[in-house]
Design a protein that fits this description.
Strand content: under 5%
Number of domains: 2
Shape: globular
Distance between the termini: 38 Å
Radius of gyration: 23 Å
Number of helices: 16
Structural class: mainly alpha
Number of strands: 0
Order of helices and strands: HHHHHHHHHHHHHHHH
Length: 475
Amino acid sequence: METVKRRRKLFLEGPIVRALVTLAIPIVLGNVLQAGYQLTDAFWVGRLGASAVAAVSVSFPVTFLVIALGSGLAMAGATLAAQYMGAGRQDMVDHVTAQTMVMVAITSAVLGALGYGLSPYLLTLLGVASDVYAGALGFMRVSFVGIIFVFMYAMFQALMRAIGQTRLPLYIVFGTVVLNFILDPLFIFGWGPTPGLGVMGAALATLVTQALAALIGMGVFLRGRHGIRLRWRALLPDPPYIRRAFLLGFPASVELSTRALGLIVMSFLVASFGTLTLAAYGVGSTILQVVTIPAMGLSMAVSTLVGQNIGAGNVARASRIALLGTLYGFGVLSLAGIAAYIFAPLFVAFFIPHDRDVIAEGASFIRIMCLAWGGIGIQLCIVSVFRASGNMLIAMVIALVSQWMIQFPMAYVLSEHTSLQAHGLWWSFPVTNIAVAIVSLCWFARGSWKTGNLTEHDRQTARVADEAIVEDGIR
């Protein structure tokens, strides 16, 4: 526990840059490993042929949407845990962990069962081709069976990150990536007595590795040696807390679901322009996801530090952390944008080396959007501040406005009703990034987030209880 105390002192009193780096580097490395997880699946499934790749591609947005629906609860738990850790309320950190675990377990079980039963109807609704249907159904159903483990480990990561413990989740993710690399070909192609399951084998490998990661995470909580201690009696449902966490987490679930739906909508818009445009979009989107990994890690570090300092009542320090983190986010992604502009054709050629048309169109997409990447860094860090202060509703509104009121209408109008055509889709990205960055900064400048101390009620309750005890002692 001495390590926990030193870490808390660093986060609440130490140099801000050192605190940000201490948190962000393990998170960034963990995100890189998660990307490696997906690349491993893509690599082995790709060896099965186009129909297998299509089966995974059509299943992923559906399962991602379901995961997004439940992720708001883990986000609410992480926000509360960070603030209670800053306030020095270890008892409430442990209570939040136990109740979040109960809520996530129930939610994931319900969503997993619904998804499993509705999988055939969802695939029919999506118009999946007959040669893809069987593989997609098997992949989707196994994914829904394993969704409880995905939820549980995501909860573990979020709560450990909230208290500033980011190294242990990194080690666990590294182990699961290595194991997944071994299990993927074993389950997909078979070996010895193990039968090859095709594309369903990829989902089964994910289920096994995520189950192992979730069990390790629960073991860490039960042992209580890394800042959180889980006790079995604390798993009894606490209705007032559950109601509070649900109201806090519901806007976050809507926000994440909105972003998941946004991926589907943009894919439909792009697909209407044909294979060349779709291929360019696919490569450009992949590069964008890789580029934003450092900014995502930084924004998560900002969220943890801001949450803990708000809980400790250090609002001025929380504000300095937010501004410094945002400045770094803007700078890192702006530099990445300049590099991407210079080397855009080389980046595209790395993925598709022999198609000059795709390289040219993909490079055009990257060069149009990359110089506004700094706006993404601003948005990610500012939104993380809103989440850390419990203002999930603001984060939800920003997500809704950015996608449904700015990007999609602009992408449609510019591509369908101007001479830009497909390039109109590309221009919707930088315009949206700049506009949302400005809106986020203006909302941040209002300062309403500074009143988001979610532990204040508990402090007042504890103070009243202490005064009552003193008075009884005097009598």
